[in-house]
Design goal:
Length: 231
């Protein structure tokens, strides 16, 4: 069995190294080269023509994926007592300012932290813990909000956050390999629309330099930019 997989992988490497793929074809190939037993995440890596050293060229934001990510997102809502019940009902996994002390002791078993503006001054003491993990609430990412109920529901239904890293690359999980081809296609197109719309006005030359599609442990497939409107 292992020899067969090795031969398959050699064929796959030959396939993916020869050309760029249109999105529809890339999704088909991605499912063909997925060998893991678990339901792997489908990931996008987009190299942008931006200078991340310049604040006015940072690309970051949120996008509501039409079919979600297939992942369970664990949310902590740091809100006052009057917002606790609605946050719980909206789907927050953990609620309340008592969790500030728990975070100070090292607890960060969460994916997203939502906070209301009136409690942000209380989060200063945990900024050094949440910041490096990308968990610090930020109004630009819609995680500081006067309407935590709405934000929590959106995140639970497929809203994701993105931000270019220091190399100008945006990484995002946009679904699971078990998703139908149509669901993956819809999610990727919606994500790319948002990336293209977020092009900084000061970015010159080619904006979308390259786009790679992969699963958690698969080889990456280079997408043809013709699959998208590259402005």
């Amino acid at each position: 069995m292992s020899k067969k997989i090795t031969k398959n992988r050699k064929k796959i490497l030959e396939k993916i190294s020869k050309k760029k793929y249109l999105l529809e074809d890339a999704i088909l190939l991605l499912k063909e080269i997925n060998f893991v037993k678990f339901d792997a995440s489908v990931d996008l890596s987009i190299h942008l023509g931006i200078d991340v050293r310049l604040p006015n060229q940072m690309v970051r934001g949120t996008v509501q994926l039409p079919h979600g990510t297939g992942k369970k997102v664990c949310i902590l809502a740091l809100v006052n007592k009057d917002k606790e019940l609605e946050s719980k009902e909206a789907g927050a996994d953990y609620v309340g300012l008592d969790y500030i002390e728990k975070i100070k002791s090292g607890w960060t078993n969460i994916d997203v932290v939502i906070a209301t503006p009136n409690v942000m001054n209380q989060l200063v003491s945990i900024g050094k813990i949440l910041g490096p993990k990308g968990l610090m609430p930020n109004p630009k990412m819609d995680t500081v909000t006067t309407n935590p109920k709405k934000s929590i529901k959106e995140i639970k239904s497929g809203k994701i956050f993105f931000k270019a890293d220091r190399y100008g690359i945006v990484h995002a999980s946009i679904g699971k390999i078990s998703f139908s081809n149509k669901y993956l296609l819809d999610n990727i197109k919606e994500f790319m629309i948002k990336i293209i719309r977020n092009k900084p006005s000061t970015s010159k030359g080619i904006y979308i330099k390259s786009i790679y599609l992969s699963t958690t442990m698969s080889n990456s497939i280079l997408l043809d930019s013709k699959s998208f409107v590259n402005k």
